[in-house]
């Protein structure tokens, strides 16, 4: 069934996305935006409540800053894999500002125009978002606006500030996050404290 689903719905879509300038890297599509900055596209899929060979796709658009992710991984004690994660991300529907939930349904009887419509939305809204957020200043603003997941942004915000030359803000952000977790012993809190211990050593003393 999975092979049939891919044949019917995904391969033509993947080729249309590649025609926009993306390359397939694992489960994601990647586009070079600037030195050390990658545009990232994921196709979030759901087959729940669908018939055989049917799938709903909601594109997720993001930007990966290679040096930000490298430092996050180093301080978190994880192996760095550039195509594993987006530094910031947003579902395409929120970039379209249509006021409704945007998704695309595919299956054996769905015309090719549906795929073309989705890929056109990626071109009009997704790619410009990537290009507009290719510098550290824009990245920091998007992090402040919660473009992503809180448990990840809390590390990326300080790292982006430090790489942008704002050591004081980097320290303030880490200390704020540590205070939020003071006394907590759950996994994420312990993980952040380990990250902070490494990261604070990288901040130059004023």
Give an overview of the whole structure.
With 206 residues, the protein is of the alpha+beta class. It has 2 domains: 133 residues, no CATH class; 53 residues. It has 8 helices and 6 strands. Strands 1, 2, 3, 4, 5 and 6 form a 6-stranded antiparallel sheet that branches. Helix 2 packs across helix 8 and helix 6 packs antiparallel against helix 7. The longest helix is centred in the middle third of the chain and has 21 residues.
How big is the Rg? 19 Å
Number of domains: 2
Order of helices and strands: HEEEEHEHEHHHHH
The first-to-last residue Cα distance is: 61 Å
Portion in beta strands = 15-25%
Low-pLDDT segments, ≥5 res: 1-8
The secondary-structure class comes to alpha+beta
Average per-residue pLDDT, rounded, comes to 90
Q: What attributes characterize this protein structure?
A:
206 residues, alpha+beta, six-stranded antiparallel sheet, 6 strands, 51% helix, elongated, disordered N terminus
Topology:
Layout: H1 2-18, E1 23-25, E2 28-34, E3 37-46, E4 55-65, H2 66-76, E5 88-91, H3 92-96, E6 104-106, H4 112-132, H5 136-144, H6 150-163, H7 167-180, H8 187-200
Antiparallel strand pairs: 1-2, 2-3, 3-4, 4-5, 4-6
Helix pairs in contact: 1-4, 2-6, 2-8, 5-6, 6-7, 6-8, 7-8
In short:
Helix content is 51%, strand content 18%. It is α+β, with helices and mostly antiparallel strands and 206 residues long.
